[in-house]
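User: Please predict the structure of the protein below. I'd like the answer in structure-token form so I can feed it into my own downstream comparison script.

Assistant: Understood. Taking the following sequence of 116 residues as input:
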Amino acid sequence: MSSGGGEEEMDEDVQIEEEEEENAPLQNKPIVKKMVVDNTDPHNGTFVFTDEDHTLGNSLRFILSNHPEIDFIGYSLPHPSDNKMNVRVQTKEETKEKVMNDGLKTLEQIFQISVG
């Protein structure tokens, strides 16, 4: 920071108070709020995530595209003002719910490793 030509150094660490609700573990907050599927087919479906964007969408797409049971995976954000993300999944033999859960668990493990 500079003020009037001289520079000041901050010797103190900034302490940030954390709220418990905002930093609750992932397992306490539902990620998939709503699922829109035709339940007659256990292998095809669209999962609708609320309050998510390309960060989760592209990461989940990458993880699931490497899953051996995936035939098709894609995601879309219908509109910037619409607060949802659609993830379309088509599987071979496993159910779409199991494969999605596998992908979310893998992504959570990667996140836990990266934040240590």
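That's the full token string. Residues 1 and 13 are 15 Å apart (CA to CA).
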